[in-house]
Input
Amino acid sequence: MSQRKKFVAGNWKMHTTLAEGRELARAIRAEVENVEGVRIAVIPPFTSVAAVAEVLRGSRIEVGGQDLHWEEKGAFTGEVSAPMLRDAGATVVLVGHSERRQYFGETDESANRKVRAALAAGLSPVLCVGETLDERDAGRTLDVVGRQVRGGLAGLSSAELARVCIAYEPVWAIGTGRTATPEQAQEVHAAVRAILRELGGDVTEAIPILYGGSVKPDNAPALLALSDVDGALVGGASLEASSFSAIVRAAA
Ligand code: PGA
Output
């Protein structure tokens, strides 16, 4: 068993009004407040970050942003910076989610700038990586994921690397109800772990590698039991307190 604490994060994507976000955060707080030994975060849309942070104040549940811009401020209409997220109460931020890569032109270079900006502001970046179905079918999974990990983390010092999290999310498993089998997940997680060691040596042992893609209460126990799976990034199932809490408990 690894020494790494399990980390379960709920990515709410473009869901929840302010009232719904507060309500969901309250319900999650009530269900998981007493679960020990798991790092927990909820990641609402930007408009709800501050309100959700307020509801969760004094609890162990962290709040995150779904994306950020790499500059601290400036003429970048529509963007939100790392210091702004910190100011709103966030401690975590997703970077390079496959939906950002697929629909909004995110590249490994932009993800790398965002990882650096997050670290500079004291946020914990969760760098998301994963192959498409075509890439998997062509036998390119480890190449693609390796390139995304190396690109997203390029140029970081060992001390910076130690503060990063990775989420492996096969694109074909996101929101589709298809999950990677434990063998498929373990293979990629072990390969990512090996790249991290190569990049930063011993300090990278602390980096959690989460699995994401249709994680649900029924498949979470088998995935979270894998030696190289250190937690879960949960989309759909994080929008209900009962299913998100069941996944948190499976990690405990
Ligand atoms: P899903 O989303 O759990 O709905 O598949 C996961 C994610 O995109 O982070």
Residues 6-251 form a domain with the TIM Barrel fold (CATH 3.20.20.70). Residues 182-200 form the longest helix (19 residues). Strands lie at 6-11, 38-43, 61-65, 92-95, 124-129, 165-168, 209-212, 231-234. The chain has one domain: 6-251.
